[in-house]
Amino acid sequence: MNHTGFIFHEDFLKHDPGPWHPENPARLENIYKHLKTTGILSHLEMIEPRIPCPDWILKIHTSEYISHVRESAINGVDRLDADTGICKDSYRIACLVVGGVLEGVDAIMAQKVKNAFCAVRPPGHHAERNRAMGFCLFNNVAIAAKYIQSQFDLEKVLIIDWDVHHGNGTQNSFYEDPTVFYFSVHQNPFYPGTGHESETGIGAGKGFTLNKPLNAGATNSTYIDVFESSLLPAAQKFKPDFILISAGFDAHQNDPLAAMKLTTEGYGKLTQIIKSFAEEECNGRVLSILEGGYNLKVLADCVEAHVQELMN
Ligand SMILES: [Zn+2]
Question: Any idea of the CA torsion for 23, 24, 28, 30, to the nearest 10 degrees?
């Protein structure tokens, strides 16, 4: 059995947010080519996405919003917010991405693979219940968490978001929910302005959101320390049945959009920490979903390091 799945579809390249956009099809094209050239792709279990039942998207988004995305795309609207460009294919592709993520969950649950990486776009963690935001249409990771809980008999999901931006949409999806623990480490102050340490959840969800905002310039050692001294103790207490990663690679020192100093090796080390925890706690069940990462060369290298650790 191949231990790591890889979710990808050529149509993911057809989502066009407009000229000069940092979230462009070349991101995925480069990842795919790089994994092929290095020979890694042949060791991965390829998983084909499906068009998902719309009910799964409705678990996180309103029907009005879903219709708005569909109508806007069909009618040739070119953006849903200042940063979030779309094209005629974008609704269909955003649905296909959700379907890819759900197939990844299925493959892990059926034990076809131990864990999996979703090379997908558009990304998802900024998407709110009723609006697009920050390059994101549907909140892929949040939908995956709902799917894991509803479709399988698993109660608790841990979402680890290491994208350099705070995942406001994911946090809000589960802010009152004690069954999904949301952890985010991100640059602060920075877009989208949320993710302060004081944001810890409300009501029954109090204590199930953990934010670690870091000043610009944070290095591997700071990130590793945050993982070991904040994330791991919280995760050990929570005891997840399944782990989702919002895998943004825009905290890399050479990313053009942010100012952190993580390296490719740093991403490998963070993956290792999560993977060994997952093996102790939840049978190794980890589904990693691509979010940001805008330096093409660096993004491909980071995905390689990340996937290598998932495979080890
Ligand atoms: Zn980001």
Answer: -110
What's the pLDDT score for residue 1? 47
What kind and span of H or E run contains 310? helix 296-311
Hey, which residues are catalytic here?
126
Rounded CA separation 310/287 (Å): 10
Q: How far apart are CA 261 and CA 151, in angstroms?
A: 39
Kindly state the percentage of the chain with pLDDT values over 70.
99
**For the segment 15-51, what is each residue's pLDDT rounded down to a tens digit?**
999 999 999 999 999 999 999 999 999 999 999 999 9
- The rounded Å distance from CA 166 to ligand 1 centre is 8
Question: CA 148, 306, 139: angle at the middle one, nearest 5?
Answer: 40
Tell how far the Cα of 192 is from the centroid of ligand 1, in angstroms: 10
Domain span at 227: 4-311
Rounded distance from Cα 110 to ligand 1 centre (Å): 31
- From the list 158, 211, 222, the residue with the least C-alpha distance to 189 is 211
Burial of 253 (0-12, 13-18, 19+ CB in 10 A): middle
Question: What totals of helices (H) and strands (E) does the chain contain, helices first?
Answer: 10, 8
CATH of the domain at 149: 3.40.800.20
Domain count, the chain: 1
Q: Is the pTM of this model over 0.90?
A: yes
Output the CA 164–ligand 1 centroid distance in Å.
5
Q: What is the pLDDT of residues 116-174, one digit of tens each?
A: 999 999 999 999 999 999 999 999 999 999 999 999 989 999 999 999 999 999 999 99
